[in-house]
Amino acid sequence: MHSFFLLTLGSTILNANMSMFKIIETPRDAMQGIKEFISTEKKIAYINALLEVGFDTLDFGSFVSPKAIPQLRDTAQVIEGLDLSTTKTKLLAIIPNLRGAQMADAFNQIDYLGYPFSISNTFLQLNINSDIGKAFMETEKILNLCSKSGKELVVYISMAFGNPYGDLWSPEIVYEWTRRLHQIGVKIIALSDTTGVGNSETIGNSFKAVVEEFKEIEFGAHLHTSPDNCLLNIKAAFDNGCRRFDTAINGLGGCPMSKQKLIGNLKTRNLLKFLKEHNINSGLDLRAFHRALAVEALTFPGAIHLPKKIINQ
Q1: Taking a C-beta distance cutoff of 8 angstroms, is the pair 242, 220 a contact?
Q2: Is the confidence at residue 225, as pLDDT, over 60?
Q3: Which residues, 6 or more positions from 196, have their beta carbon under 8 angstroms from its beta carbon?
């Protein structure tokens, strides 16, 4: 286990090797599968509350067809209502193709574009009506756009820990597509468990296959977990070099295009529990975190307040 010390800045923790720990909060993923439309005003209020917490990045919205994901049809309006004047948190928008990237590129407030690549052809067809060859070429086009605009591309390798469709999977496949993405200049890759099929073994083996080999790449974990496996899955990624984790305060989420039961995102409080157990300071403002919880309860249909004693760190 690595020993973290010396410097804490926001939610970024530096160690002797200058590696970074980042928490990426994902209200976009938490919202996208909810059928009842959450008003633009409620989204703005909630995301503004999250901007005060100190997350490294907020995955806040998506430039996708409103027919595909109706919940996110107001992303452009949400951006204009955000108060970025005092926050250090960066904004990330998911884009399914070059057209979506071009739409997102028009907003200077957005720092990162997130592209849902996958090593499952079945999922690519369901999610963005593509296949692995076309998706790779689209990645190159989007990367070229980012290089011109100054934004950074985050590539999500969906189904990185297996898939429910019977498509071929192995750590070697994860390695091979990481190698190709590295060759074209991708610098941030999130290994993603879109449908919750990953376990500590497959997660650990996937990170082990790539982290030490591609030191120039910042690797993240986008996990969909249950109460039974969340800490084990976090540990598997962490022990194999992952220092970037996507979370959702309420644990909601999942891809409505996957044709699978939606398995929620890794709950933020479960990651905070893991960090506390390992004496790692999250760097978050926990008072602001609790305020965001209160706003979350007013934002999501059927949301329930969490105990105030959630985390003391």
Answers
A1: yes
A2: yes
A3: 224, 225, 226, 254, 263
- Convert the pLDDT of each residue in 284-300 to its tens digit: 999 999 999 999 999 99
- Enter the DSSP assignment of 72: G
SS3 content of the chain, % helix, strand, coil (to 5): 40, 20, 40
What whole-number distance in Å separates Cα of residue 76 and Cα of residue 66? 12
- 3 state DSSP class of 14: strand
The four Cα atoms 124, 125, 130, 133 give a dihedral, to 10 degrees, of: 60
Task: Kindly report the number of other CB atoms within 10 A of residue 239's CB atom.
Answer: 15
Mean pLDDT of 195-205: 91
Residue 263 is predicted with a pLDDT of 64
- Burial of 257 per CB tally in 10 Å (0-12, 13-18, 19+): buried
Q: Which domains are present in the chain?
A: 22-38+55-280 (3.20.20.70)
Q: Please provide the DSSP assignment of 84-153 as one string.
A: -SS---EEEEE-SSHHHHHHHHT-TT--EEEEEEES-HHHHHHHHS--HHHHHHHHHHHHHHHHHHT-EE
36's tokens = 């009842």
Is 3 within 8 Å of 14 (Cβ atoms)? no
Q: Using CA atoms, how far apart are residues 299 and 145, in angstroms rounded to an integer?
A: 34
Task: Decide: residue 39, CB within 10 A, 0-12 exposed, 13-18 middle, 19+ buried.
Answer: exposed
From 188, 98, 182, select the one nearest 139 (Cα to Cα). 98
Q: Which residues pair with 155 in a beta bridge?
A: 115, 189
Q: How far apart are CA 137 and CA 268, in angstroms?
A: 34
Give the 3-state secondary structure of residue 225.
coil
- Which residues make Cβ contacts (< 8 Å) with residue 284, sequence separation at least 6? 11, 23, 53, 54, 55, 272
